[in-house]
Automatic annotation (TrEMBL):
It comes from Candidatus Coproplasma excrementigallinarum. Keywords: 4Fe-4S, Iron, Iron-sulfur, Lyase, Metal-binding. This is Fumarate hydratase. The keyword Transmembrane does not apply. Belongs to the class-I fumarase family. It is an enzyme of class 4 (lyase). Its EC number is 4.2.1.2. The keyword Membrane does not apply. Residues 11-274 form the Fe-S hydro-lyase tartrate dehydratase alpha-type catalytic domain. GO terms for molecular function: 4 iron, 4 sulfur cluster binding; fumarate hydratase activity; metal ion binding. It holds the Pfam family Fumerase.
Length: 279
């Protein structure tokens, strides 16, 4: 058994939040550069060039890469041989978020859903926990902006709709979103599970490196086909049309009930920010 004080988790969240706020993932930068190289001349190419330039300036200057510094999404995969001590786990995570958003001068965007009163420090974080084997904790921090989150959708398909129904749901969501989520988008998809767990699968899919594929070959084919069809929509960077409407599609899955086929589609804008640490 390995003892771990939760201040270690707090400090890891703090570091990750500060880094994620100013820096795109390397796979996102690579995907944007590839899209820019492949794009025709015109407004879409110009927009991609500016997105890349913006990311470079943000990283160099240590300034937010987007004005929407997001709601703090934290995934903790906790080893079964880890014994936590100190302050309660969720308090530690929220303290890390609170410190980072203050020290990084990041916009505080979390508020009461009814009164709209801002909490003032971007807490509470949206925390997901999983239990795994071993004596380590895998921490993933992802700031999620709501221009793209608002374009997400959950479908309760009939089992008979099958793979085509899944792909149609993905394409329909992106088509309906159009230019509003600041494309080119990254699309996370959850397949299976229940109404609530399916949405988490879609969120978790967005933490994967862009360009990676699910280990299941049939689900990897869904990813590839969905990406192909999305890029045939012609939405293009920032809605200026062109060849690249999405830089990636990632799917995660879970077993489901014989009577259902839940599909969740979580849209992420071009500004993919995600930091992982092993503790």
């Amino acid at each position: 058994m390995r003892n771990l004080d939760t201040t270690v988790i707090e400090d890891a969240v703090y570091r990750a939040a500060l880094k994620a706020g100013v820096d795109l993932t390397s796979s996102c930068r690579h995907a944007l550069e590839e899209a820019c190289t492949a794009e025709y001349e015109g407004a879409a190419k110009f927009a991609l060039e500016k997105l890349i330039e913006n990311s470079e300036v943000a990283a160099r200057m240590g300034m937010p890469v987007c004005q929407d510094t997001g709601a703090a999404v934290v995934i903790l995969e906790i080893g079964n041989e880890v014994c936590l001590s100190g302050k309660p786990l969720y308090d530690a995570v929220n303290d890390g978020v609170r410190r980072a958003y203050k020290d990084g001068y990041f916009r505080k965007s979390v508020c009461d859903p009814i009164t709209r009163e801002n909490t003032g420090d971007n807490t509470p974080a949206f925390i997901h926990t999983e239990f795994i084997s071993g004596d380590r904790i895998k921490m993933t921090f992802m700031p999620k902006g709501f221009g793209s989150e608002n374009m997400s959708a959950l479908y309760m398909l009939k089992p008979a709709q099958g793979v085509e129904g899944i792909i149609d749901a993905i394409i329909g969501t992106v088509r309906k979103a159009g230019s509003r989520p600041c494309p080119p988008v990254y699309v996370g998809v959850g397949i299976g599970g229940t109404f609530d767990s399916c949405a988490y699968l879609a969120k978790k899919a967005l933490t994967r490196d862009i360009g990676t594929h699910n280990q299941r070959s049939d689900i990897a084919e869904i990813e590839k086909e969905a990406l192909r069809r999305i890029n045939e929509l012609g939405i293009g960077c920032q809605g200026f049309h062109g060849k690249t409407s999405a830089i990636g599609v990632s799917c995660e899955w879970a077993p489901t009930h014989i009577a259902g086929l839940p599909v969740a589609v979580n849209i992420q804008c071009h500004c993919v920010r995600c930091v992982k640490e092993s503790l």
